[in-house]
Task: inverse folding
């Protein structure tokens, strides 16, 4: 048996073009869907199970991370039978803390790496950053691409960088953050998605959360369509993680509608779709509580973290 | 019984969607989300709107209008006879010679604005009624038909006192009494397209809505009465073909505006021969939607879907012929089928419905006749596999591939959710195929290359060409056909001319 | 004493596809002057001649429609120049066909000026009649006039040259190709105009001129399925029948019967607009 061919840089000039107005119109159509009753409850529960509960602050401490992990496991015990979130996402220095707090559970530990969020460090620093996160117990690594290199056309550099990080990741899942808010056009988003998937990304992710705009429905739609085409070409299912800006349940449900009508049921799982969010969970919980009681809710009744 | 028969026929003979690992039907689905109807009262009987009041028809004729999603009657509607036509035309003439004709244009404008405003206030009511009576999804009547109708009144209202700026070197004057005959596919919107410019230009109107969809025009008549327009400025006469024929032939009519089939339009042009009546005709189409391999394919697929499945394909400017460049044909068709499988066919009043009911049993029969013809012509048929409701008139989104330019399903207007797919190799071939039709209403082109956009949009012989988009409408944008798709324009500055004389 | 020179008389033929054929039917119409002297045996065109002319006009249409506005203006101007250079001949010919000399002179001069008028519109009428439409969605949207296609023209009967020029020029400058039927009463000027057109860089088939009987040919003008518009300046009694026949392919019917073409008010860009279609183009504005 021949060894599998090493990943090769695709010709980005051949990547399907994107029309921004058309994408925006289509994205708006998902928002016209009305999701009610049982389908709403199912959607809300699915959203919870897809959340990467995130804290990425300079002021993060082990105490803060431990609280977050506790929340990840006990979203709202007053509502029995809730799923737990998919993962807790932290800086590399906090991985070990999270790992200990989540030991023996199914909640994954995700770590940003590669000189997050700007990524403006030499490759060896990024690889060391990644290695450290993995060694500390990260199940998942959220890396950033070198946007400057990408924008000046150094696609090979970006491709090799992703491939190198992927290698260091080993068994850990690699999410590649495109930081779409810095890419300037949807054509660039699509090209970067294709590049990242070919370089070995297990997930592609919109944003660090540190740059505006972060995730938007049109941007995510373009990435989902790229994922679908990648699946058609290679048979490999790449996951999607919108991050930043998805702070309410209604919007999250619209993302789920978009996922459902673009990639379909096989992607409707935490294994292939995540929400990177810090405040989404509580809004979803309030909605679930409202569906259960018929009363509109107050945030005072739900723990912050 | 007949209904369930027709439904079964459209069900059986095609290759169903393959067992798709990504099939939409599996797993999570949307719960019913019906639009509330409790604020919309449908009356049992509707009269004729003549001279500012609802009256009974002279000869007592009436017909039923059905809800095509159930096949059950919604209301009994008076049918106007020749005698009623004469009464309405006389009322319109009186208003033209009287208050409306004497009114200052800026005052006239305020009435037209008022109609637009009141339509906005009652938007949801009109949307629900439109979907009930015509079968179109509430998402479309709510988001497209009604807002656009209101926008038309707003746009044209503003022209009323500015007409001399639209026609340099001329002094425009109104024509008099306009006879307007509108179709069933956009009942309220077509009423707005016709009424707004006619009124803004100072004419009075006798409007005949289609016999399967009279309710929103009659509700609009109520609104116009509430808006306090002088009696006789707008008259609404429900009825079928005979009513329309009597109206366009009436000697008191100065102008005829018709939207409908090419066959009827041709008949009207003949009927008006030898009279001084002016006429504008918006007729059929068989538009080509041309997709090049350098197009933004995912958006092109959306455009194809919007082009043919919008309003169940009951659209004269529908992109009913897909011309796709050979290099991307398989990919486009695969994406298209996938997208078709996500379309929800069903209750027009459900907010999630993408494709509603076929407007009438007669239209469903026409569509199904073409489905048979397509199969007989050897086309490969694909229909998405959604379940259809048990009663009413329905047709699944349908593709015909492997068809030729000489096939009837490529040449003739089907007016349903049926797309014929052909391939091409070069831009010249695409243009030749696109223009090889007696129609010329609309066309579409999808390419990322700017120069090619303009070559194609210039080359397509049609009145509306959408580049990298499809089925977009706006009150400021003129709409109308080349060749057998009609004559004259509606919308925009050019839409004023049909309602004015520029002589002397 | 030298013998008197015998003048060479001209054969008046049809003008189809840039050629001057006789009618395929072999028929002719004798045309006499006021004294009853034979002026010419004019071709009496048949419906087949008309059919051939439509084929030529259709073939010429794409090229003429896509010629630059500047070029179309130059060519119309060139027709005017050539007409000017042959002014006396046209005056003479009109006089022979019964016009008073002064009226003939005025008709020729007005015809020349009319061509100049429309030549000047070539690159302006689209500016006057186009709009950029401020649609509510993120699209760039504009509407422009485009030529209707092949235009059949039944020229005004009472003037041999001016009526024809007044109706030919607006159709032509707008990018249409034309098949015209000359005035039956004074057909010679039309044939001579064809010779001028032939010498004026007008591409073959863009203008086609027939002589013959309106009563015989008008119905075919109206019913031909490959004619896009009919401009009727002839007998108004024909109008109803023409509209009925024109309806068969939704032909645009422009009725200009009984009009006086001599004044300055007989020319304006709205006559160009009569044989134009408005095309609206949409394109997204985005990235």
Result:
């Amino acid at each position: 048996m021949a060894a599998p061919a090493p990943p090769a840089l695709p010709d980005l000039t051949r990547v399907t073009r994107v029309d921004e107005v058309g994408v925006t119109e289509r994205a708006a159509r998902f928002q016209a869907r009305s999701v009610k009753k049982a389908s709403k409850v199912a959607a809300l529960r699915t959203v919870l199970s897809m959340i990467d509960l995130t804290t990425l602050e300079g002021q993060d401490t082990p105490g803060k991370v431990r609280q977050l992990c506790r929340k990840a496991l006990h979203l709202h015990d007053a509502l029995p039978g809730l799923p737990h979130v998919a993962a807790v996402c932290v800086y590399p220095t906090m991985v070990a803390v999270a790992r200990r707090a989540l030991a023996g559970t199914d909640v994954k530990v995700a770590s940003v790496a590669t000189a997050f969020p700007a990524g403006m460090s030499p490759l060896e620093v990024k690889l060391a950053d990644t290695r450290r996160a993995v060694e500390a117990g990260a199940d998942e690594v959220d890396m950033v691409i070198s946007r400057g290199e990408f924008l000046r056309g150094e696609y090979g550099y970006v491709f090799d960088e992703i491939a190198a990080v992927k290698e260091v990741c080993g068994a850990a899942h690699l999410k590649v953050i495109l930081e779409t808010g810095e890419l300037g056009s949807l054509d660039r988003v699509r090209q970067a998605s294709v590049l990242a998937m070919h370089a070995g990304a297990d997930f592609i992710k919109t944003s660090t959360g540190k740059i505006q705009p972060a995730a938007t429905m049109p941007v995510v739609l373009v990435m989902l369509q790229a994922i679908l085409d990648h699946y058609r070409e290679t048979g490999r299912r790449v996951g999607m993680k919108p991050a930043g800006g998805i702070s309410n349940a209604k919007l999250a449900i619209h993302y789920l509608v978009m996922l459902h009508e673009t990639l379909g049921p096989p992607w409707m799982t935490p294994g292939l779709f995540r929400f990177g969010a810090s405040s989404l969970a509580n809004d979803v919980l309030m909605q679930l509580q409202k569906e259960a009681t018929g009363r509109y809710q107050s945030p005072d009744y739900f723990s912050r973290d | 019984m007949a209904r369930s028969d027709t439904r079964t026929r459209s069900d059986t003979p095609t290759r169903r969607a393959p067992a798709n690992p990504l099939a939409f039907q599996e797993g999570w689905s949307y719960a019913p989300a019906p639009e509330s109807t409790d604020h919309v009262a449908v009356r049992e009987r509707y009269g004729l709107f003549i001279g500012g009041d609802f009256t009974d028809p002279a000869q007592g004729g009436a017909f039923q209008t059905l809800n095509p999603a159930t096949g059950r009657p919604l209301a009994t509607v008076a049918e106007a006879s020749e005698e009623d036509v004469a009464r309405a035309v006389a009322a319109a003439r009186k208003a033209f010679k009287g208050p409306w004709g004497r009114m200052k244009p800026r005052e006239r404008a305020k009435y037209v604005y008022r109609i637009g405003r009141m339509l906005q206030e009652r938007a949801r009511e009109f949307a629900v009624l439109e979907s009930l009576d015509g079968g179109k999804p509430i998402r479309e009547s709510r988001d497209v038909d009604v807002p656009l109708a209101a926008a038309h009144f707003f746009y044209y209202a503003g022209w009323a006192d500015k007409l001399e700026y639209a026609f340099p070197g001329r002094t425009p004057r109104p024509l008099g009494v306009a006879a307007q005959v509108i179709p069933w596919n956009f009942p309220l919107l077509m009423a707005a397209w016709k009424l707004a410019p006619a009124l803004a230009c100072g004419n009075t109107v006798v409007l005949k809505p289609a016999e399967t969809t009279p309710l929103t025009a009659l509700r609009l008549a109520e609104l116009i009465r509430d808006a306090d327009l002088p009696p006789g400025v707008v008259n609404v006469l429900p009825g079928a073909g005979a009513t329309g024929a009597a109206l366009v032939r009436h000697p008191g009519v100065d102008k005829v505006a018709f939207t409908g089939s090419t066959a009827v339009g041709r008949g009207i042009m003949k009927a008006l021969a030898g009279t001084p009546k002016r006429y504008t005709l918006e007729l059929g189409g068989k538009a080509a939607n041309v997709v090049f391999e350098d197009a933004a394919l995912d958006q092109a697929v959306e455009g194809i879907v919007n082009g043919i499945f919008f309003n169940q394909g009951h659209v004269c400017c529908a992109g009913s012929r897909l011309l796709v460049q050979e290099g991307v044909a398989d990919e486009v068709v695969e994406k298209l089928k996938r997208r078709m499988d996500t379309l929800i066919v069903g209750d027009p009043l459900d907010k999630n419905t993408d494709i509603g009911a076929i407007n009438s049993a007669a239209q469903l029969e026409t569509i199904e006749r073409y489905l048979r013809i397509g199969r007989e012509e050897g086309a490969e048929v694909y229909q998405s596999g959604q379940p259809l409701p048990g009663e009413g008139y329905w047709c699944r989104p349908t593709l015909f591939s492997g068809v030729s330019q000489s096939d009837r399903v490529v040449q003739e207007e089907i007016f349903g959710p049926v797309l014929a797919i052909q391939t091409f190799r070069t831009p010249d071939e695409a243009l030749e195929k696109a223009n090889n039709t007696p129609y010329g209403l609309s066309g579409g082109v999808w390419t990322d290359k700017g120069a090619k956009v303009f070559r194609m949009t210039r080359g397509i012989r049609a009145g509306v060409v959408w580049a990298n988009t499809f089925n977009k409408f706006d009150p400021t944008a003129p709409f109308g056909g080349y060749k057998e798709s009609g004559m004259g324009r509606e919308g925009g500055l050019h839409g004023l001319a049909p309602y004015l004389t520029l002589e002397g | 004493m030298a013998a008197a020179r015998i003048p060479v008389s001209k054969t008046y033929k049809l003008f189809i596809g840039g050629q001057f054929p006789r009618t395929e039917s072999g028929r002719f119409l004798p045309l006499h002057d006021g004294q009853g002297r034979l002026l010419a045996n004019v071709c009496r065109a048949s419906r087949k001649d008309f059919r051939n002319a439509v084929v030529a006009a259709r073939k010429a249409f794409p090229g003429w429609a896509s010629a630059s506005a500047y070029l179309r203006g130059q060519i119309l101007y060139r027709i005017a120049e050539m007409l000017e250079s042959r002014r006396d001949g046209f005056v003479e010919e009109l006089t022979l066909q019964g016009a008073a000399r002064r009226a003939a002179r005025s008709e020729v001069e007005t015809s020349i000026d009319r061509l100049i008028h429309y030549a000047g519109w070539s690159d302006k009428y689209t500016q006057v009649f186009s709009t950029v439409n401020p649609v509510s969605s993120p699209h760039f949207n504009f509407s422009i006039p485009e030529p209707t296609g092949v235009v059949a023209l039944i020229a005004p009967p009472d003037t041999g040259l001016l009526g024809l020029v007044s109706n030919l020029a607006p159709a032509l400058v707008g990018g249409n190709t034309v098949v015209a039927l000359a005035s039956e009463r004074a057909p010679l000027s039309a044939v001579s105009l064809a010779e001028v057109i032939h010498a004026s860089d007008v591409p073959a088939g863009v203008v086609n001129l027939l002589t013959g009987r309106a009563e015989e040919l008008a119905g075919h003008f109206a019913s031909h399925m490959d004619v896009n518009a009919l401009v009727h300046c002839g007998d108004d009694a024909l109008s109803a029948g023409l509209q009925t026949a024109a309806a068969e392919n939704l032909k645009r019917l422009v009725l200009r019967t009984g009009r006086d073409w001599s004044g300055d008010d007989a020319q304006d860009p709205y006559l160009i607009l009569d044989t134009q279609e408005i095309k609206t183009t949409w394109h997204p504005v985005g990235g």
The longest strand of chain C covers residues 139-147.
